[in-house]
Amino acid sequence: MKTEVFSVLDLFCGAGGMSLGFKRVGFEIIGAIDNNEAAIKTYKSNLGFHISNQDLFHATELQAATVIIGGPPCQGFSSAGLRQSIVLQIKNPTKPPGRRRP
């Protein structure tokens, strides 16, 4: 009996953590998209060259895949995140990270 291999397209892939997890359980990563150069370089080094530098806000076509995954924004790097330095969290460990009140 032949086992079907599901194809995966990873959006907002970052350094590839979600792709790696899916790959380890048998999925075939056919494409990945991010627009952060450092993340793309890391992804290529760890998972291969099937990643493209693209801003998904302006994307018109995506590769066909059985499964589409997308990573949540990293708080320290995303323009939607708090951009709070880990150093600040270490200096004040009793204050939990989160949004500051106005």
Mean pLDDT: 81
Q: Can you tell me the CATH architecture of the domain at 7-72?
A: 3-Layer(aba) Sandwich
State the separation between the terminal residues, measured CA to CA.
61 Å
CATH domain class name of the domain at 7-72: Alpha Beta
Shape, please? Answer: globular
The portion of residues assigned to helices is 10-25%
Radius of gyration: 17 Å
- Record field, number of beta strands: 4
CATH topology of the domain at 7-72: Rossmann fold
Largest sheet: 4 strands, parallel
The CATH homologous superfamily name of the domain at 7-72 equals Vaccinia Virus protein VP39
Low-confidence stretches: none
Active site: 74
Keywords: Methyltransferase, Restriction system, S-adenosyl-L-methionine, Transferase
Pfam family, one: DNA_methylase
Protein name: DNA (cytosine-5-)-methyltransferase
Describe this structure in words.
- With 102 residues, the chain is α/β, with parallel strands linked by helices.
- The model has no long low-confidence stretch (mean pLDDT 81).
- It has 3 helices and 4 strands; from the N terminus they run βαβαββα.
- A 4-stranded parallel sheet has the order 3-2-1-4, with helices on one face.
- It has helices at residues 17-24, 37-47, 86-91, and strands at residues 7-11, 28-34, 51-53, 67-70.
- The longest helix is centred in the middle third of the chain and has 11 residues, at 37-47.
- The protein has a domain at 7-72: Rossmann fold.
- Helices cover 25% and strands 19% of the residues.
- The active site is at 74.
- This is DNA (cytosine-5-)-methyltransferase.
- One of its GO terms (molecular function) is DNA binding.
- Keywords: Methyltransferase, Restriction system, S-adenosyl-L-methionine, Transferase.
- Its EC number is 2.1.1.37.
